[in-house]
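sorry for the late reply, my laptop died twice this morning and i had to redo everyting from scratch. anyway the thing you sent over, i finally got around to it. pasting the sequence first so we're on the same page, its 385 residues, then the predicted structure underneath. double check i copied it right bc i was rushing
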Amino acid sequence: MKKIVLRRTSRILSGHLWIFSNELAVSPKGFEPGSIVEVYDNKDKFMGVGYINPHSLIAVRLLTREREAINSDFFRKRIIDAINYRKRFVHDSNSFRVIYSEGDFLPGLVVDKYADCLVIQFLTLGMERMKDTLISALDEILSPSIIVLRNDSRSRSLEGLPLEKEIIKGSLDSLPLINEGGALLEVDPMTGQKTGFFLDQRENRIALGSYINGGMGLDLFCYSGAWGLQMAKNGAFVTCVDDSETAISKAKRNFQMNNLEGRGDFIKDDVFNFLRKEAAGSLYDFVVLDPPAFVKSRAKVKEAIRGYREINAMAMRVVKRGGILATSSCSYHIEKTVFIEMLRDAARDAGRNARLFEYRSQGRDHPILLSVPETEYLKCAFLEL
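ok and here's the structure:
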């Protein structure tokens, strides 16, 4: 194992798992991309073991702070630890995130379970090099019928990796069916968003359903209709809106599978355009606003905040007096305090009084490592208007 020396250690001493190239005492250019290295400070004190990519801004990602071999036994133990965490904290679901990268001390690896199907993402060169070992361990421990490699995240391009998708075990002739709070949903791991579904909002969707007993609902950026299903199965009539024909088709199918097609209306439209038309007319008891990330870099934060503020103000205008708006941001670069301030401004723009009665984050299967703030990204606010 080669040795690399840090010139700055404050990030690692605080518990972070990332080492940037400018924190190294020497250039990482001579190291083999993806290889395992021992990390030391400039006084030759051992700091941990990680993998290195000399072509990435994040040069080293730590795997452990102990002197231990990075082999199949190491990964098997980490995977079992992650599964035991889910057994303790994630209940009543046949689907959840099994491995959440840094949140499970396996930076660069994401694994989602949809019923009997595993979807695996290798996001970094270091994890890609350990692919066979990790797939073998996951297959042995979880024994899924289907394994899909969903390696099409743009982060792989930053690591110099190709974008690809592949079924390496079983087939998707029948798509996985998951159960979320008593609602069935069909997941397509090959063509759906992320790894096929948005598991991070699961607990938030179920929580919103507990406040609903009839009424009129609106699911904006509905994707496969998961928020709308929670409203519909609690008695609401739901209008689902998305600008993707594929998403609208998915939502319709999921409503049909739950015998709720009579409780839904499905509209293909740009959400901004839809809300401009609705502002003068329909009012809803429950509105869900779950847009895609408006910002991918810190440089675009101000622009993104304007977009979030505008669309939240528009959504607030179509909520009945005493109604509920469930609104989210999955942009890591929009911090919680900024998100709340944006909602305050949006309420003022809409001429509404908004009361925050519940603030939520990502599900417990996406654990937040306090020393790695990047593991916390999802913000979800339940407002009474």
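The first helix runs from residue 10 to 13.
thats about all i looked at so far, will dig more tmrw
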